[in-house]
Give the backbone structure.
Amino acid sequence: MAKEGFVVTPWEVRGEIDYDKLIKQFGISPIDENLLARIKKHTKELHFMLRRKIFFAHRDLDWLLDEYEKGNEFYLYTGRGPSGHTHLGHLIPWIFTKWLQDKFGAKLYFQITDDEKFLFKRELELEDTKRFSYENILDIIALGFDPKKTFIFLDTEYCKTLYPQAVRVAKHITFSTAKAVFGFKNESNIGQIFFTSMQAVPAFLESVKRKKNVPCLIPLGVDQDPHFRVARDVMPKLGYYKPAIIHSKLLPSLLGPGTKMSASDPRSTIYTTDSEEVARKKIMNAFTGQQPTAELQRKLGGNPEICSVCQYYYFLFEEDDKKVEEIFEAERNGSLLAGEHKADLAERVVKFLKEHQKKREKARDQIEKFILRD
Amino acid sequence: MAKEGFVVTPWEVRGEIDYDKLIKQFGISPIDENLLARIKKHTKELHFMLRRKIFFAHRDLDWLLDEYEKGNEFYLYTGRGPSGHTHLGHLIPWIFTKWLQDKFGAKLYFQITDDEKFLFKRELELEDTKRFSYENILDIIALGFDPKKTFIFLDTEYCKTLYPQAVRVAKHITFSTAKAVFGFKNESNIGQIFFTSMQAVPAFLESVKRKKNVPCLIPLGVDQDPHFRVARDVMPKLGYYKPAIIHSKLLPSLLGPGTKMSASDPRSTIYTTDSEEVARKKIMNAFTGQQPTAELQRKLGGNPEICSVCQYYYFLFEEDDKKVEEIFEAERNGSLLAGEHKADLAERVVKFLKEHQKKREKARDQIEKFILRD
């Protein structure tokens, strides 16, 4: 699919995303070297997702740092739509959010939108999205968030707090606006239309609770930005700061650029619950974009930009920039053939999965330390 | 305003209502003598609001009685939109609901839609609608509902129970449907569009709680019917009975037929919180439709159908049908002049208000016996 044909909404990501175009389309700001330097002043080091501009854009991050430097500390808010098991792509903003929590000592609200996924997925019942919520929460906890500073909640279990606030947001959002931003149609159900109000609440919830304005930073996959484009217009009308946002790119599909995302094809990604065998198989079947034969690949080389295996290293599995460059170069110059390339990655992924799955099992006893219910 | 020009929606009642037309327009069934006889079989006597067809229409009341006669008991559900103080018109469905509770020993859910009134009234904050909720609850309790069988709740205080169920309803209501039934526009806010889902929930809440299908009867002012027209389509899709409904006419304005309703003009009705002086003054200024002079009135007589004073007796202040007929006849034959007519009613109303206000004060200590919170 041509880059022109991409679609990025909270409910559909399709085509090969042109992030430069998306910056213009969404009206977000690229993260530049000055901003990175400002962050580094406080964090001492830069997470590889910042160095590599995997977190590539933002809204009002400079303002957030101004406030922070004035002593006005921020809290974090991110979320998960529990439509199924967690895949590796979901981990990107979560891993980065944990880093931010560690570096800034920030409180985190983690919203699980079980209502949303029920409303948007015809085949799912609330019981299903609740079950997936608790599966996903195991992955969140497994990443090592601070239980004293991390508050995870399901919309349907925390709605005595959320709903009255959502109603305050909803009063300021017309159908016109929701339709323009989210593309609702006459057939859209009225829960879908309302839903963005629920997602807006954690962006000012700490201000409600502390009865004073507290800055909020939302790390998210860029597909979720439309919710906050709307919410940011509403917040000042309720007397709150607009939340700052930092946007990540989306983990490319294992099946290559422009192919459909995970929900419709489990071969396109690896779930944290996949067995070693399944994960290996998916990787061995991944798209590399290498030449059709080993001989041609040695002669002509491949393109790491479209190689799923290279991209997996880049996004998640090799923190060392120099090593990533070596892998990319080996792909480029044809010295690394697809089989070996995939087998190397498979080792890394399987190692990660085994450790993660162990932590995930241990997390079962930790849930109540993290969960927030009314 | 001509009878052709009337409008009846949950948020606007305008013009002189033609109830026969409304029956056709809403697709509801008139209450006939057979149905009254069936009710009387169980209640022994008929409430004057039934005898006079103040409760004039229904949906599936015959089905509800079939179920009741098979031993499948029903529960009651009614509600209040707390946009201000309670006026006498609001009491009509409540008084009748209490009678039903007494006669059938039925459990009652009483929903206070503070979220709705906040969403639909630009000038009201949630704090305002909550304050009015608790004012209105005093009036409800003052009417003598059984505290063991009556469960009153505010949407914003019971939303941990209501919201997840509302989402289940919302999934089955398209924007098209909501727009067609409620007349939403592009400027409507997304909370308004969602709201009907919240009002639907108590119509099946008892079935959710008891994990079995329980018939529900909703006594309401006919202006609220559109909510349940939509809800009744959804209920079977969730596996529940459609609720039965019994519809009341709306108390006419003190200012005469076709004049605007209370919200826009406090002279048009009497609030339960009005002082004796205010109530007397409103009644003495009421529209009677009598002739311009006493002489002409004695000669030509008046029309009780358009006389607010006669209508107040009919709807609320004279339970004895014979006495109502005497009052109507005295208006018709010109023997009862406006001044005396009004003064007589004022006595009745003031007596009612004094007693009600006493009970209302006593109700302050009773609230916690009735209220349901998550």
In short: Chain B has two domains: 3-250, 262-362. The CA atoms of residues 119 and 192 of chain B lie 6 Å apart. The radius of gyration of chain B is 21 Å.
